[in-house]
What does this fold into?
Amino acid sequence: MKQYRLNRLFDPTSKRCFDVAVDHGFFNVKEVLAGIENLERAVATIVKAGPDAIQLTVGQAHLLQEVAGKQKPALVLRTDVANVYGRELPRTLFSRIIEEGVLQAVQLDASCVVANLFRIPGEPEVTDQCIENILRLKPDCDHYHMPLMVEPLVFQPNATAGGYMVDGDPDKIIPLVRQAVELGADIIKADPTDDPRDYHLVIETAGRIPVLVRGGGKVSDREILERTAELLRQGARGIVYGRNVIQHPNPAGMTRALMSLLHEDATPEQAARHLITG
It folds into this structure.
């Protein structure tokens, strides 16, 4: 019965999903709030652009679920809160899940829940907490037929790339993706590799589990469109982008541009036209 909820996430024709992440307020870092200072307005803009899903927290999910009509995006509910994203890390790091997160997701009519699986240099305790979170969520997800998205994220050392920056080394990404599969993920949200042409290795590691690619830091329009097109060619089943949408001067246009790549097999040049007309 998880398939019923997955059907709301993945386009019936392309079999792909675009999830716009606007759950950044959970993490208590000012820099990642750019573009979503007024979250109600940001969600309304994204809803109108029509992605497949929007990723929100338990305190803000109502901004999506109060929208009337059958065609609104599906809700992906963030279930864990962490303090690992700042340029200067606090003395003690943590990753904790909300109480009865899957039940709250059911009550909010979510289509999926998401939790992190961090690999942070020198911080194995946080990885342990993430694993514990996933182990607690998994039985409830199975009981309530709620898909579980696991987000294996490989961090660069904070001293060299502080602020939650991607380490695109396949040798680090692949074992963490495999661990997420072994823990029972129904969907994987994974880092892009430094060379997008290597991403088939991540897809092969995930096996039958669909892989959505995380956007990472803000990059140029050309880079995000070309990278996305290549990742899709490598077998990615979708994307979960936040800052490259919400911090864009034209969030609706960027949403439509990326949707055209996923669901219409547009070229990057064709997709870029939405940034002018969107």
About this structure: The chain has one domain: 2-277. The mean pLDDT is 94. The CA atoms of residues 7 and 120 lie 33 Å apart.
